[in-house]
Amino acid sequence: MVKNAAGRLVPEVVNNQKQVPYKGINKYRPKGVKHRPAVRSCMDYPFDGNKCVESIKAALVKAGIKDGMTISTHHHLRNGDIVTNMLFDAVKELGIKNIRWFPSASFSCHQHLIQYLEDGTIHHIEGSMNGPLGKYTSQGKMKGIGILRSHGGRYQAVQDGEVHIDIAVIAAPTADPFGNANGVTGPAACGLIGFALADSEYADRVIVVTDNMVPFPCVPWQIQGNNVDFVVKVDSLGDSSKIVSGTTEVTKSPDRLLIAEYVARFIEESGIMKDGFSFQAGSGGTNLAFVLFLKERMKAKGIKARFVRGGSTKYLVELLEEGLTDYILDGQTFDLEGVRSMRENPSHVNTSPFTSYNFHGKGNFASMIDAAVLGATEVDVNFNANVVSHSDGYLLHGIGGWQNCLYSKCTILAIPSFRDRIPVIIDSVTTLCGPGELVDVIITERGIAINPRRKDLLDALKDSNLPIRDIKDIKREVDEMCGGKPQKPKIDPKKVVAVVKWVDGTVLDSIYKVKE
Amino acid sequence: MVKNAAGRLVPEVVNNQKQVPYKGINKYRPKGVKHRPAVRSCMDYPFDGNKCVESIKAALVKAGIKDGMTISTHHHLRNGDIVTNMLFDAVKELGIKNIRWFPSASFSCHQHLIQYLEDGTIHHIEGSMNGPLGKYTSQGKMKGIGILRSHGGRYQAVQDGEVHIDIAVIAAPTADPFGNANGVTGPAACGLIGFALADSEYADRVIVVTDNMVPFPCVPWQIQGNNVDFVVKVDSLGDSSKIVSGTTEVTKSPDRLLIAEYVARFIEESGIMKDGFSFQAGSGGTNLAFVLFLKERMKAKGIKARFVRGGSTKYLVELLEEGLTDYILDGQTFDLEGVRSMRENPSHVNTSPFTSYNFHGKGNFASMIDAAVLGATEVDVNFNANVVSHSDGYLLHGIGGWQNCLYSKCTILAIPSFRDRIPVIIDSVTTLCGPGELVDVIITERGIAINPRRKDLLDALKDSNLPIRDIKDIKREVDEMCGGKPQKPKIDPKKVVAVVKWVDGTVLDSIYKVKE
After folding, report:
1. Residue of A nearest to B207 (CA)
2. Residues 109..148 of A with a Cβ closer than 8 Å to B: which?
3. Which of A18, A267, B167, B220 has the least C-beta neighbours within 10 A?
């Protein structure tokens, strides 16, 4: 273990791979060249373009599956995904062991895979772990060490050759026999499938799995068949009611509504809300409410955004369709209205972790956004933030695009000051996911704390009647109300179960086994 | 020089680079990995996304231009392009020498660059040479050896690392300061700019030049700003009347009209014209007329194509807008109607040499097409064809997508049997561009020759009253009419001025200095 530039202890080697400890914001300059996929030839692919294979199992065999390989999946089907479970059932049937599973994220539906972690089919997971797999990891049961990356960090890791994918399995709501694929149509329509882009570009072998096969050409081709080896038709990709929620509800909690209103007022009063501005808001009730409040303020002042970034919801779609923004630049659709809009509106544009978030490109979209409104599980008095674990030490969430979005011109964490009687503002975050230098504003129902580094924002708001407060004041009040600081998690400091990477591939923090 | 599998003498080394002689159709399997661009970091690019630089010259300096580098351009602005000329004026002003110019094609407007070939600013050209630069090369005046590649072969050469581009200069009819760019809007709108895709992906440094700067985001982003280093605003990209012709006229020649009608009848009578079929037709009066004839036949029988491939023209757009095809998959737009349609119709889809033609991918679109209707400068009795030189030996045309299209399920060369009293069907082509194994049918005004290898087509047409004839019969008739075979070109067999590559990067034939 070595202490990195954030003062966190991190392992120098993870799963036998040497690591670079975090060096600080914009301090680590990568060397070397991008990953080098093998040159293929059309002579080894059917000239009629028909790459169909009868089953996932058959495709895995043709792809040359072997013990110890890395298999990737994406999470656009969210908690409705059954493809990943079918995939590992097939891996198990083939008697293959020690797979590194490299999902863009995992959900509760993947609880099915715990048996394969137990029996050695899967060696370890590198990818966001939401829910049961996170808990399993926290309990120290996984054979290898989990590696958590942001969406942009995942693209970066594949592009830079940190993670070599042997076989990518891409669940595609619509595809043609050549392998062109998209997420906008079909019974499992999820909007877009950009999280699988890196996989399609860099994996040795790429398998597209669909339940909606159309004749060539499948348009739009969000995944290009020219990168695909095999196509498999299955009966269903999953439970469409869980793939997109269908309804995304605005919060009804008075506290959360207050936070949302503060965020909207902050964006207006700070001068960020002006013609041609841009913002990004995640899903979740508070964020949805914020969009509604901001919309009213935009309409009142006759202001139009140049672009808004999704995860799209019906509220962002309304902005677009009512002419309050020129574009939605969307990374994933969170509801059915988002899917419909992406299909119908040319100004609802699908993006990928490459365009949006990859830190090892020639710029990305994240740093151009005027304001990003995000959540957090914990923040500390130095504005450091946590998004993957709770104060009890359990790993229960993925990073998503959160780290990448911190590069926005004004990053706002919109969070309740306590949850279940546990304060959210603490002395030091359980897990460091976002260095405080990049967190500009913390907005709670009890007040708004502006990072002292942002003198410009402090100046802009100096005459505001918003409750601008010192973060330590808010903390003190909350601690008193909750009966003190949260208890320290009971962890085993000798047993690292996962690490958190920064957007540049360096290791930012460690996650430890929780003693139960 | 070594004799390749087509019996042609080719150099083993071209411009100090070792070559692989042509091995036969689908005989050369590439080894190795794709080209490896350097990993970049956002920390070295402006976080606000503004990559604007004041001039092409300043951008070249920032890009680190040096003697002997390779600079690439694309040809979407066709004969209206002034960017390439401005570019080399700047290179000259900087006193840089021995540039390898790697355009996707050059036109008469680039005659301006002959002075730079003369004074050593440009060492040699690798790319299609139409008109004056081809003639200059044929005269043996260029310092290096020209390398002619198909559109797909150009992508392949860049992808495989055969050609490393130091600096790519991409003329973009619309762009934003981040470098996102497209060809669908702006005063120099040319439809799409897919020929610059490989350049944007693989070049060390990428400069986007535009005369129509829009605020971020430029949508659609046919070129992704995440691959771009610098953006330059200029007053004009060129003469828009020469960029797209505006009017594309159907031939009025009775002979050409007869050829076009034969092609349409052949496609119907051979059974190729059926619901869900596909075809590709180039520009040029005969091809345009063929589309009109085929359209009437499709309407008469109530038949709809699944897709047609452009170079798009108003005639293909009519097919789409009248519901006679589901899609246009377009590689470049040949007229203003094509540009308009690409902007307005989601089913008019922009493609690239990667999707369409790259032979070193996991399949491409070219081999899935039911019928490709192409031209040729010469064919021989073994169905070999030439598309770059004339019978006098002069190099005057580029290959374009022609070689790639030969992979269609039925390749038809629609050609007059003689031009300017010179027979087009000869004993052996002056330059071999397309091996006879891939040419299925030759259609002239004097008869239709089916390649004896295609027994299926001979069978399908055996009861037709189309003039199906032996190619040697047609040749004999034409030779008699023209007063004998064409004269052999007067060439210097010791002086190779250019080579023709096959789609897999091997060397198919040599082009020699013409003795004047």
Report:
1. A362
2. none
3. A18
Across the interface, whether the CB atoms of A37 and B33 are under 8 A apart is answered yes
DSSP 8-state secondary structure symbol assigned to residue A137: H
Name A170's bridge partners: A208
Contact A398, A127 (CB under 8 A): yes
Whether A50-126+163-243 shares its CATH topology with A254-489 is answered: yes
> Which of B41, B226, B359 has its CB closest to that of A355?
B226
- Whether domain A254-489 has CATH 3.40.1080.10: the reply is yes
CB B359 within 8 A of CB B353: no
CA distance B154 to B201: 13
**What is the per-residue pLDDT across A148-183, written as a single tens digit (0 to 9) for each?**
999 999 999 999 999 999 999 999 999 999 999 999
CATH C-level class of A50-126+163-243: alpha beta
Would you tell me which residues 57-86 of chain B have a C-beta closer than 8 angstroms to some C-beta of chain A? none
Say which CATH class B48-126+163-243 falls into: alpha beta
Q: Sort out which chain B residues have CB atoms less than 8 A from A206's CB and list them.
A: 362
**3-state SS of chain A: helix, strand, coil percent to 5?**
30, 25, 45
Ranges A240-254, A274-288, A327-341, B32-46: which has the least confidence? A240-254
For chain A, what are the domain ranges?
Answer: 50-126+163-243, 254-489
Q: Looking at domain B254-490, does it have CATH number 3.40.1080.10?
A: yes
Structure tokens at A339: 């899917």
The tokens describing A331, both together, are 């990374």
Q: Does A355 touch chain B (CB under 8 A)?
A: yes
